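Q: Can I see a sequence and its folded structure?
A: Here is a first one.
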Amino acid sequence: MTQSRTRISKAVIPAAGLGTRFLPATKATPKEMLPVVDKPAIQYVVEEAVTAGLSDVLMVTGRNKRPLEDHFDRNYELEEALTRKGDETRLARVQESSDLATMHYVRQGDPRGLGHAVLCAAPHVGDQPFAVLLGDDLIDARDPLLARMVDIQERHGGSVIALMEVDPAQIHLYGCAAVKPTVEDDVVQVTGLIEKPDPADAPSNYAVIGRYVLDPAVFGVLRETEPGRGGEIQLTDALQALASSPDLGGPVHGVVFKGRRYDTGDRGDYLRAIVRLACEREDLGPEFREWLRSYVTEEM
C-alpha cells in the first residue's frame, strides 16, 4: 500500500469545459472567466489552492481558453497606465492574479471526461500526491476545506475526497460515496463510489463535491479505466477501484464538509453566489443590502 508523506505543493484545475449552460455568454468567453462580483470565478479557486499551501498550479484547458492564461499573466501596458495615473489600489488588484502562484497549462485535446483531464496532469505531477479543484465549486475562504483534506492525506496517505450531505432526492446529480465512520467526526473511510446513482440505488446521501487530494497511484488506475457513464473516463470509477482495493494506492478517506459552497456551474446558484458574496463585502455590502431589502419588499 502506498503511504505518501511528501508535502503536497501541486494543484490541478480542469478547465476545458464548454460552459454550455451559460450560452451565449460563454460563446467567446471561458465560463471560468465569468465574474463573481468583481473577480473571475477561476481566481477564487486558485486563491483557495494557494491558501492551502499549494503554490504550483496546473490548468488543464482546451480551445478558446487563452483568456485564462492572460488573466494570470502580467499585463505590462495596463500596469504602466495605472502607474502613470497613480492608481495604486487598482494596480495592486491587477497584479494580484499574476503574483498568486506558479502557473502551468496543458491542453486536454479530446473532451473525454474528468478522469482523462486528471490523467493529462500526470507528466507535470509525477509521483507526488496532488490536489484537484473543480472550477464550478467555490468554497468560502472562511471554511478551509482543502487545508483539512491535505492534513488528512498527509497523516493517512492514499486519497481524500470532499463530501457533503445532500437531500437524497438530489443524489442522482452527484457521485455518491459508501462510507464507514472513523474516530474523527468529519472524516469517513470511503468503501465505494457510484457516479450519479438512482436514489433507490444510492448507498448514502454523501455527495462528492469538487475537491480531491489524490495519491499518484490514481494515474495508473485511470490508464486502465474504460469509459463509463456518458462515454467518458470517470474519476469516480478510478477512485472506486482505489477504495475497493487499498493495495493499489492506499485508502480513500472523505472529509465531510458543512461549510459554505457556491455552485457557479448552475445559473441560479451562480446568481445567488454573487448576491451572497456582495452582501458580505465591506466595500459593497451595506449599500447593496439596503437596496436588496427595498427591492425584495417592493416585489413582494
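Q: Show me another, different protein.
A: A second, unrelated one:
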Amino acid sequence: MTSSRNRISKAVIPAAGLGTRFLPATKATPKEMLPVVDKPAIQYVVEEAVTAGLSDVLMITGRNKRPLEDHFDRNYELEEVLRTKGDAAKLTRVQESSDLATMHYVRQGDPRGLGHAVLCAEPHVGDQPFAVLLGDDLIDPRDPLLARMTAVQEEYGGSVIALMEVDPETIHLYGCAAASPTGDDDVVNVADLVEKPTAAEAPSNLAIIGRYVLDPAVFEVLRKTTPGRGGEIQLTDALQALASDPSLGGPVHGVVFRGRRYDTGDRGDYLRAIVRLACEREDLGPDFREWLREYVSKEM
C-alpha cells in the first residue's frame, strides 16, 4: 500500500520560454496564452494536472509573463459586468480558470534550460515526488496519461517519463529512450536516454514527450549537471544519470502513450491542433466540419 508521504499532489509547469517560433504574436503575449479554440493553451495543461489529482500547481515564469498570473486570478470587474448582464454562461467560463487550482509562481530569472527551471521548483516541492508538464504538449483529457504516470511512480518508485512511438525518420527531433519491457504492456524500464539522435544512432523509436513524474532526488543530480549547449542545464541529462545509476534516486520507467496528443510548439501543428479540437466540440464541430469539407473540396 502506498504511503500518504509518497502521494503526488504537486505539479510544476515551466513557462519561462520566449516563444520565438510564434513571433510577432509572442512579442508582448506569452506563447502559453495563445488561444487553442477559445482557451489559452496553458489552461488545458493546468486542467490536465487537476484532473490527475494535482491541485497544487507551481508555474515557473519569466519576464513578460504577468498575463499568466492574471488569467488564473479573479477579474472582479469583468465578473460583475457579466453578472449584471445576467450572462451566467460566460461568467462560469471566466471563473473556471481562477477556481481550477491553488496556483503559485516563481521566476526563473536567467533562461538556463529546462533542468534549471525544474531546479527552481525545489523550495516549493520539497522532498516529495512531483509532476512536470510542458505546455507545448496538450494531452487529450479522454486519454489520462498523467494519472497513469503517477500510478506507475507509486508502484515502481523513482521517476517516470512519458514516451511515444514515432517514425524512426523523425526521432532526431526528440530525446530517445533505450528501454526494455516490464510486466505491464505500457511500461518500460529506461536504461539510457539519447538527446536527438540520428535514425542510425537511436536505440529505439520511443520519443520523450513533455510529461514527467520525478523523484525529488533529481534536484541533487541537477545541481551537479554540467550545462550543455547554450549554457543550459538539460533535464534529459539528469534523467540519464538516474537511469544509468538507480542508486542516485531510484529507477527510471517510461509510460508508452498511445493516445491523442496535440503539439502546440510548432506553427503548423498548432493550427492542426486547433482544427482537430474544434471539430470535436459539440458546440462548434457540426458547422465547422461542414465548412471544412466544403473548403477542402474547393481547394483540392
